[in-house]
Amino acid sequence: MKKINRKFIIYSLIVVGIICIIIVIGNSHCSSKSSKPKAEYVRTDPNKSASGIDTRTERTNQKELSDGITADAAIVYNASTGNAIFEKNADRREYPASMTKMMTGILAIESGKINDEITISKAASDASYTFLKTGDKLTMSELLYMLMLSSNNGAAVALAEYLSTPGENFAAKMNKKARAIGMMDTHFITPNGMHHNDHYSTARDMAKLGAYCMRNPQFKVYVDTEQHRARWKVPAGKHYACYNENKLLSLYDGVNGIKTGYTEPAQCCLATSYEKNG
User: Fold this and answer.
1) Contact at 8 Å (CB) between 23 and 14?
2) pTM (2 decimals)?
3) Beta bridge partner(s), residue 262
4) FRET label pair with 257: which of 39, 243, 244, 249, CA 20 to 30 Å apart?
């Protein structure tokens, strides 16, 4: 496996008249490292976006744009066409951190079991940054709010355990889905993005995942929610206020998701969906 660049990832999605996704990796605001690798920047058509819309009046010199992005890798991805409007080192392998939870969330939703009651295991309660205790019981839907808003690592473990089957563990399901989506340079190990050397993806692959997830109406409800009070089945009366860590939801009209994240090797991460006139 080629060497992975251990830096920060931001994934965004931007479009005019459609839905698009932007991904940036290695932001200097989250890293003390000042040296940046040489950028590879691409624009397939200098006069038109991937949707065919003329962009002469909006176009910025691509070299200046690339240099102006304080991240090692980036992509502006048209979710409707699957084309990249802009990219910078989009195929470099990176650690996706909690961006991983997009895959965990969509697999849970597509299972059709969001109303099922899940018992929290010791492994889930032992995960970092969780308020779950062994023996707690919550519906899958409440765990999804905790997963996608508060980035709860224990919720990811609980969902992975519940959806694993004797013949196929959850990581295998994640990787199988990744291939089906067209993520050919991605390998998942953990359901929450906690660091593992062989857990990696690229800006382009994560843009594909974000675009796929945002086509699901239920997924969009979770990631477009700014706050939610998760309520336990057991113990009765226990509840927890989840606040969406994607602050862009309240800052910009049109932003409707998706996921933040951080680990020390990956640094800061953000996936944001933006839809205008869509």
Assistant:
1) no
2) 0.82
3) 268
4) 39
Alpha-carbon radius of gyration of the chain: 18
Residue 171: count of CB within 10 angstroms of its CB = 16
Q: What average pLDDT score do residues 34-55 get?
A: 40
pLDDT for 217 equals 96
Is 3 a residue of the active site?
A: no
Give kind and range of the element (H or E) at residue 258.
strand 255-263
Nearest to 81 by CA among 45, 40, 47, 49: 49
Over residues 174-192, the mean pLDDT reads: 98
Q: Which of 66, 150, 151, 201 is catalytic?
A: 151
Distance CA 51, CA 79 (A): 10
Q: Catalytic site residue 137?
A: no
Whether the Cβ atoms of residue 260 and residue 245 lie closer than 8 Å to each other: yes
Per annotation, catalytic residue among 7, 88, 101, 173:
101
Is residue 113 over pLDDT 70? yes
Helix, strand and coil in the chain, % to nearest 5:
30, 25, 45
The β-bridge relationship of strands 267-275 and 9-13 is: parallel
CA–CA gap between residue 109 and residue 218 (Å, rounded): 7
